[in-house]
């Protein structure tokens, strides 16, 4: 973790030398990290799209085998195999931004420059947000990001708990970490909006489907 923090610190200092503000540098730093991790997220979005598509089938299996958990799991595995879906493949991209949090936290605490670095309403990026704006933004953006990939109504309460947890965590962390997390969430929201948009069928395809249906009816 120490070596990761050192490299992250060098990257952040390099960006700061160009922009002259550590708050802006953290935002650019976060965007660069997310761009580097983009291939992992493209894979994750593909998995999420497939999970949304098969969610009605998943619900059917849950209702059908509600009293037989073992059979339910077997049918789930069959469905995932048939549709070529691996639910666990989306876990790593979700964990990667969290992994960076600790080295960033340590870096903000150890670098004296952050204690006097100001940004917008923040007088120190190494101190907590005195107005709780970043914690609230952290919770709201976490909820929106999670809700966009929600495939099960039961996940709604989990999303609320996770959002409340992020508010609580961000309250006690340096403001610089809050800037990182909010920026990361906003990037994720835009990313999910782009990759998870429902694809509209082409006009030719829709007309062909209509013609095929008319032929069957006749």
TrEMBL record:
<protein>
    <submittedName>
        <fullName>YidC/Oxa1 family membrane protein insertase</fullName>
    </submittedName>
</protein>
<keyword id="KW-0472">Membrane</keyword>
<comment type="similarity">
    <text>Belongs to the OXA1/ALB3/YidC family.</text>
</comment>
<keyword id="KW-0653">Protein transport</keyword>
<dbReference type="InterPro" id="IPR028055">
    <property type="entry name" value="YidC/Oxa/ALB_C"/>
</dbReference>
<feature type="transmembrane region" description="Helical">
    <location>
        <begin position="20"/>
        <end position="42"/>
    </location>
</feature>
<keyword id="KW-1003">Cell membrane</keyword>
<keyword id="KW-0812">Transmembrane</keyword>
<dbReference type="Pfam" id="PF02096">
    <property type="entry name" value="60KD_IMP"/>
</dbReference>
<keyword id="KW-0143">Chaperone</keyword>
<dbReference type="GO" id="GO:0005886">
    <property type="term" value="C:plasma membrane"/>
</dbReference>
<dbReference type="InterPro" id="IPR047196">
    <property type="entry name" value="YidC_ALB_C"/>
</dbReference>
<keyword id="KW-1133">Transmembrane helix</keyword>
<feature type="transmembrane region" description="Helical">
    <location>
        <begin position="161"/>
        <end position="182"/>
    </location>
</feature>
<dbReference type="InterPro" id="IPR001708">
    <property type="entry name" value="YidC/ALB3/OXA1/COX18"/>
</dbReference>
<feature type="transmembrane region" description="Helical">
    <location>
        <begin position="131"/>
        <end position="149"/>
    </location>
</feature>
<feature type="domain" description="Membrane insertase YidC/Oxa/ALB C-terminal">
    <location>
        <begin position="22"/>
        <end position="195"/>
    </location>
</feature>
<dbReference type="GO" id="GO:0051205">
    <property type="term" value="P:protein insertion into membrane"/>
</dbReference>
<dbReference type="GO" id="GO:0032977">
    <property type="term" value="F:membrane insertase activity"/>
</dbReference>
<dbReference type="GO" id="GO:0015031">
    <property type="term" value="P:protein transport"/>
</dbReference>
<keyword id="KW-0813">Transport</keyword>
<feature type="transmembrane region" description="Helical">
    <location>
        <begin position="91"/>
        <end position="111"/>
    </location>
</feature>
């Amino acid at each position: 973790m120490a070596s990761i923090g050192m490299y992250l610190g060098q990257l952040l200092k390099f960006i700061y030398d160009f922009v002259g503000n550590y708050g802006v540098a953290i935002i650019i730093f976060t965007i660069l990290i997310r761009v580097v991790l983009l291939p992992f997220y493209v894979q994750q979005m593909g998995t999420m799209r497939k999970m949304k598509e098969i969610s009605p089938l998943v619900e059917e299996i849950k209702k059908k085998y509600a009293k037989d958990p073992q059979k339910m799991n077997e049918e789930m595995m069959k469905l995932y195999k048939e549709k070529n879906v691996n639910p666990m493949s989306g876990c790593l991209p979700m964990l990667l931004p969290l992994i960076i949090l600790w080295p960033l936290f340590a870096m903000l605490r150890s670098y004296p420059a952050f204690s006097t670095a100001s940004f917008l309403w923040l007088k120190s990026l190494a101190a907590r947000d005195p107005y709780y704006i970043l914690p609230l933004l952290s919770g709201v953006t976490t909820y929106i990001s999670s809700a966009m990939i929600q495939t099960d109504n039961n996940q709604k309460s989990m999303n609320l708990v996770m959002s409340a947890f992020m508010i609580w965590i961000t309250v006690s962390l340096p403001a610089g970490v809050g800037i990182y997390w909010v920026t990361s969430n906003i990037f994720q929201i835009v990313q999910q909006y782009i990759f998870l948009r429902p694809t509209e069928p082409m006009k030719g395809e829709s007309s062909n489907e209509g013609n095929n249906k008319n032929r069957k009816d006749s």
